[in-house]
Amino acid sequence: MVARFRSWHRDRQAMDGYTLVEFAIASIIFLTLTLGGIDLGRAVYLNHQLHSAVRDAAREAKVGTANGYGFSNGTIHHRVLVAKNLIDGDEFTRLGLGSTTSSYSCTGSCTTGDSLTVNGSLPFSLVLQDFLGIPTLTLSASATVTLE
């Protein structure tokens, strides 16, 4: 009976090393999946913010043309970076869009009846980018309106 106990005790000590190796492998997989999920959520959020910002900038350019005060590349870029509360007129910076680049183009001379397209692009870096060897992604959005 003492021999059985010693044998079991020896096997138990050998299992401790296996447990550590299994934990190391499982934790790498778990952390990769967890951080990948966080990156996916960030990408979806920033993509939505970018589309909303470009759409707001196109709308403001359309309304500005209709009201006679026009627009410029500076006002379009400002509206992409800064949102405006339409009820009280307060402005707030859009989170995560600080490095966004924006541009616009018109089908004609940007007068009534022409189509205006606002484009925006945002470089997106993953948390695990270096670990996975993935290059920087670029999120892009565009919105087209007809000037009135």
Attribute tags:
3-stranded antiparallel sheet, 148 residues, alpha+beta, two-stranded antiparallel ribbon, 22% strand
Q: How large a portion of the residues is in β-strands, by DSSP E?
A: 15-25%
Distance between the termini: 95 Å
Apparent shape: elongated
Q: Main sheet: which strands, in order across?
A: 3-4-5
The helix tally amounts to: 3
Rg on CA atoms, Å: 27 Å
- Secondary-structure-based class equals alpha+beta
Weakly predicted, low-confidence segments: none
State the total count of DSSP E strands: 5
Mean pLDDT: 87
SSE order, one letter for each helix or strand: HHEEEEHE
Helix content: 40-55%
Quaternary state of the chains: single chain
Main sheet, how many strands, which sense, barrel? 3 strands, antiparallel
Describe the structure.
- The protein has helices spanning 2-67, 73-81, 129-132; strands at residues 82-84, 91-93, 101-106, 115-124, 137-146.
- By secondary structure, it is an alpha+beta fold.
- The chain has a domain at 45-146.
- The strands form 2 sheets. It has a 3-stranded antiparallel β-sheet with strand order 3-4-5, with helices on one face.
- A hairpin with an 8-residue loop joins strand 3 and strand 4.
- The model has no long low-confidence stretch (mean pLDDT 87).
